[in-house]
Amino acid sequence: MSSDALRAAPESAVRLGDMQPGFRGVIVAVRRPSGSAPGATDPEELELRLLEFGFVEGARVEVLHQGPISGDPIAVRVDDMRVALRRSEAMNVILAEVSA
């Protein structure tokens, strides 16, 4: 998702990687990461992997758990599926917060 798309997202838009357990939201966009660190997953591959895991626009997400060391990885519920992913990968999922 480009910076223009992030600006077009609702004012309550947040990145999944910034959220703590108990947060609930709806996916408004999945963006391709810009650049890549040495040894990081290819940006196109990461975007495709997230989409295949069910991180699609309109899917409901809840942060369930975080790892004990620096909160990494995080476990989330995406609709009816549970997924664990790195916070750095979760930063590419943009959510609108919803009330419980």
How would you characterize this protein structure?
With 100 residues, the chain is an alpha+beta fold. It has one domain (3-97): SH3 type barrels (Roll). Helices cover 20% and strands 32% of the residues. The protein has 3 helices and 6 strands, in the order αββαβββαβ. It has a 6-stranded antiparallel sheet.
First and last CA, distance? 27 Å
Which class do the helix and strand fractions yield? alpha+beta
Shape: globular
> Helical content, roughly?
10-25%
Biggest β-sheet description: 6 strands, antiparallel
What number of domains? 1
The residue ranges in which pLDDT falls below 50 over 5 or more consecutive positions are 1-8
What's the architecture, going by CATH? Roll
What's the mean pLDDT score?
83
| Relative strand content | 25-35%
**How do the strands line up in the largest sheet?**
1-6-2-3-4-5
Per CATH, the superfamily is Ferrous iron transport protein A (FeoA)
Oligomer: single chain
Question: What fold name stands as the CATH topology?
Answer: SH3 type barrels
**Helical stretch tally:** 3
**Over the alpha carbons, how many angstroms does the gyration radius reach?**
13 Å
- Pattern of helices and strands: HEEHEEEHE
Topology:
Layout: H1 3-8, E1 13-15, E2 24-30, H2 43-52, E3 60-66, E4 74-78, E5 81-85, H3 87-90, E6 93-97
Antiparallel strand pairs: 1-6, 2-3, 2-6, 3-4, 4-5
Top keywords for this entry?
disordered N terminus; six-stranded antiparallel sheet; single chain; 100 residues; SH3 type barrels
In short:
The protein is of the alpha+beta class and about 100 residues long.
